[in-house]
Amino acid sequence: MKKTFTLVVLSLVLISAVFVGGCAQKAANPPAQTKTDAPKRKLVAVGECTFAPFEFIDEKTGKPAGFDVELIQAIAEASGFEVEYKNLDWNSLIPALNNKEADLVVSGMTITDERALQVTFSDPYFTSGQAWAVKEGSPIKTISDLAGKTVAVQNNTTGDYAAQKLDARFKEEKKPGLIIKRFDNAADVFNELKAGGVDAIISDLPVIREYLKNHPEDKLIIPEPAFTVEYYGIAMRKQDKDIHELINKGLAKIKASGKYDEIYQKYFGKK
Ligand code: ARG
């Protein structure tokens, strides 16, 4: 009897020792999960979603998708914040930062000196450039043949600015200028060429390439390589220094981890 009692006591002591030990270990070494228990900061990102493959509305989900959307999600994950991506008009993107409707513009936006007066750009995240496209069989064979022709661009984009420069160059060369038709969204630029409303379009090369891939029936061609070099950046309010850091550190992290390359390959294939 006494023996059984001793055994029971002994096992109880042992069991509690294991328990206490286990708990102590837990306290000293909290599982990773407890770290994320605090609610994450949420930032709102915006873009004009007719700019595939950077941002477009996914037909199945009806939600924004694309390289930029996945990029900012990966940056958010790497820097420990949450992000919601919203579709907005191109001309409302920078104003949305100023009226605090959004914290980040992730919209294939080229880093330019004029824009940098209003916003702070992240480190560059993509190298791009302007190119022009026409319908197959067009008499326009080189960029100089655009003199006196009509061209569609998205309003207030670097395509618009490139077209204005080209117009000025033609006029300097005593040639007829470029007739520029401006559209509020990137999709309408392509629609106008398709409808025969213009002779050519000027837009970002990766976006023209994506359009050609998705609409082979339109029979568009890109006769020459890109004629500008541009870098995309994420635009933020100048005063949000903490956000600048979250974005640049997150971008560096996903470049180092291979996550950036994974997203790049999904949309553009191997580098
Ligand atoms: N890269 C060009 C620019 O910054 C065009 C960007 C257009 N982006 C868009 N989502 N529509 O001016």
Structure description:
The protein has ten helices and 15 strands. With 271 residues, the chain is an alpha/beta fold. It has two domains: 40-128 and 232-268, 3-Layer(aba) Sandwich (D-Maltodextrin-Binding Protein, domain 2); 130-228, D-Maltodextrin-Binding Protein, domain 2 (3-Layer(aba) Sandwich), CATH 3.40.190.10. Strand 2 and strand 3 (55-57) form a beta hairpin. The chain is globular. It starts with a helix and ends with a helix. The relative contact order is 0.16. Arginine binds next to loops.
List key phrases describing it.
271 residues, five-stranded mixed sheet, alpha/beta, globular, 2 domains, 42% helix, D-Maltodextrin-Binding Protein, domain 2, binds arginine
Shape: globular
**What is the CATH class designation of the largest domain?**
Alpha Beta
The strand count comes to: 15
Mean pLDDT across every amino acid position: 91
Strand order of the largest sheet: 5-1-6-15-7
Bound molecule types: arginine
Ranges where pLDDT stays below 50 over 5 or more residues in a row are 12-28
- Provide the CATH superfamily of the largest domain: Periplasmic binding protein-like II
Kindly identify the CATH topology of the largest domain: D-Maltodextrin-Binding Protein, domain 2
Rg, Å, rounded: 27 Å
Count of individual domains: 2
Strand content: 15-25%
What is the helical fraction, as a range of percent?
A: 40-55%
The succession of helices and strands, N to C, reads HHEEEEHEHEHEEEEHEHEHEEEHH
How many alpha or pi helices? 10
Distance between the termini: 79 Å
Kindly name the structural category.
Answer: alpha/beta
Characterize the biggest β-sheet: 5 strands, mixed
Keywords: Signal
Organism: Candidatus Fermentithermobacillus carboniphilus
Signal peptide: 1-20
Domain Ionotropic glutamate receptor C-terminal: 42-270
